[in-house]
Amino acid sequence: MRRKTAAPPSPLPQRHGVDAVRVRLPWSEEWATVGDYLIERLSGAAPGLVAGMLESGLVVGVDGRPVGARTPYTPGLHLWFHRDLPPEVPVPFALDVVHRDEHLVVVDKPHFLATTPRGSHVTETALARLRRELGIPELGAAHRLDRLTAGLVMFVVRPGERGAYQSLFRERRVRKEYEAIAPYDPSLSLPRTVRSRIVKDRGVLAAQEVDGPVNAETLVELVEHSGELGRYRLIPHTGQTHQLRVHMNALGVPILGDPLYPVVTAPVPDGDFRRPLQLLSRKLEFTDPVTGVAHRLCSARKLAAWESYQDWTGRQVG
To answer: For the chain, how many helices (H) and strands (E)?
Structure first.
């Protein structure tokens, strides 16, 4: 078994706050040239795109020099290139910094802004935007928040410290508190802790509760209610994908604006910022694993449906 070694640093600078793509050639003799491998590996790209990139010198090796299509295939070779990114619809809401020091940046993310580059959202993400705006190219995410969820997200300034902060979440040493707006059901006995097993299959939009050992646990509390709406405090003790949304739906009070629960609806097109999911990462409490400082951070955002249900249903909000 080959020993894993750290990848060499990218010879290409970031573009729009986004790292160059790194490809490592597999340990195989199946391909004769670099071009043969890349054209097969990136077969989903537009016809001629990969060949054009190689011909134009846009694919480089560890020394920053262009690698051509006819370069002999060398197992283990690292290559870098920038993707030709299509234009993205800007998310026109502020990304507010609530805490910044030499180790951490914690921001109050708006709805509709992805945390890190993924799929069709690359430059319009919190990470790329912060790298550009703060001038910290090595900034990395300590955890992720769903694109449709607003609120507090933690980023790490120094790559060497990222593991320490990620371990806070992995080892459940961060107290997270969320707020949600959902229907009010007077027959629902709260507070209660919801426990279930949640699985989400790759390529399937919605997660499901299934039989088996519990892997998801959420404390649900009703803070107040007004008419047919309730304002809920949600405290997750685990971090399964869509956990809060699944558990609220299981209680019969799905979160307002949820396009997946209880029913998967048509994807919301980019640029449609109406009726955001009424879920907010309200508080993060943790002891900094590097400095030992205790942090208690709170989002300043308000959920629009609670402030004015009529406005939430009829206009764009952030």
So the answer is: 7, 13
pLDDT digits (tens, 9 = 90+) for 82-115: 988 888 899 999 999 999 999 999 999 999 999 9
Task: Give me 178's structure tokens.
Answer: 């969320």
Residues 6+ apart with CB under 8 A from 117: 18, 123, 125, 127, 128
H-helix segments, 118-161: 126-134
> How would you class 133 by CB atoms within 10 Å of its CB: exposed for 0-12, middle for 13-18, buried for 19 or more?
exposed
Helix (H, G, I), strand (E, B) or coil at 172: coil
What does the block give as tokens for 128? 């790329």
Return the CA Rg of the chain: 22
Strands 294-298 and 175-183, by their bridges, are unpaired
From CA 60, how far away is CA 11, in angstroms rounded?
8
Alpha carbon distances (Å) from 199 to 207, 213, 215, 275? 6, 11, 9, 27
- What is the pTM assigned to this prediction? 0.88
Q: How far apart are CA 297 and CA 101, in angstroms?
A: 14
Q: Where are the alpha helices (DSSP H) in 86-239?
A: 126-134, 162-170
User: CA nearest 33: which of 75, 95, 93, 84?
Assistant: 75
Smallest Cα–Cα separation from 164: which of 140, 134, 184? 140
Residues 131-140 pLDDT 10s: 999 999 999 9
